């Protein structure tokens, strides 16, 4: 009986010593796996600028071990992305992710819930709308507000083209005499008919993501201002 008791105590002591060693390692591993790609790139940038791992750790609010591990992976693989298998497996395959992104490109004004309902029959597992948004972000698609523009007739486009051609030969002194004015209208009504679209960054002026509409008199405040080469008007 005494031998069994001693054996049990010996096993418990070994497990306790192992737990004391594994606990900080698990904490470091957890912090490392929770780093986003932006944070990893920021860490690599600071260390390439000559910062020490301890200084980067204080700046990032992480441990020194996490900084060194991120730097070692960068030196070894020249990449700050996560290793395969270092996070939970995705519920969708790469082909299904491409199908989700393509559905958003075909219908850019559809919500994530609508895209979820559209692609759900073709997916192998149920996917939430949050995962749909995550896949779209990974596909470099963001949710942006529509650009609202006035509808232009062919006559408007012709006059704009003629205006550009006439002023195409102006010198710098001529351009310094131009005054630019603009006004911003703040709607005070309860509904502004906000519509969002899925598009890539830099495609704001694409007419495919613009809403052409005529303005109508509603309650609001108009702010006007003008600037020139060496002057600026007060806001009115």
UniProtKB/TrEMBL annotation:
One biological process term in Gene Ontology: DNA integration
Any single GO CC term annotated in Swiss-Prot or TrEMBL for this entry: nucleus
Protein name: Transposable element Tcb2 transposase
Domain of life: Eukaryota
Subcellular location as annotated: Nucleus
Primary location class: nucleus
GO MF, one example: DNA binding
Secretion signal, residue range per the UniProt entry: none
Transposase Tc1-like domain span: 99-165
């Amino acid at each position: 009986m005494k031998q069994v008791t001693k054996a049990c105590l010996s096993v418990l002591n070994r497990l306790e010593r192992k737990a004391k060693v594994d606990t900080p390692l698990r904490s470091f591993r957890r912090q490392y796996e929770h780093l986003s790609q932006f944070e990893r790139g920021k860490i690599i940038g600071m260390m390439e600028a000559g910062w020490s791992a301890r200084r980067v750790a204080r700046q990032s609010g992480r441990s020194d071990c996490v900084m060194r591990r991120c730097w070692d992976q960068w030196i070894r693989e020249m990449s700050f992305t996560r290793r395969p298998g270092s996070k939970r497996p995705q519920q969708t395959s790469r082909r299904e992710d491409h199908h989700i992104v393509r559905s958003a490109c075909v219908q850019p004004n559809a919500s994530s819930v609508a895209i979820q309902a559209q692609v759900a029959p073709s997916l192998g597992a149920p996917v939430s709308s949050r995962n749909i948004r995550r896949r779209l972000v990974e596909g470099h698609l963001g949710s942006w507000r529509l650009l609202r523009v006035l509808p232009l007739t062919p006559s408007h486009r012709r006059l704009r083209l003629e205006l550009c051609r006439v002023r195409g030969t102006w010198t710098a002194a001529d351009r310094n005499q131009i005054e630019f004015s603009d006004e911003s209208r703040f709607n005070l009504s309860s509904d502004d008919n906000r519509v969002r679209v899925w598009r890539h960054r830099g495609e704001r002026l694409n007419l495919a993501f613009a809403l052409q509409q005529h303005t109508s008199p509603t309650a609001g405040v108009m702010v006007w201002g003008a600037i020139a080469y060496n002057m600026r008007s007060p806001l009115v």
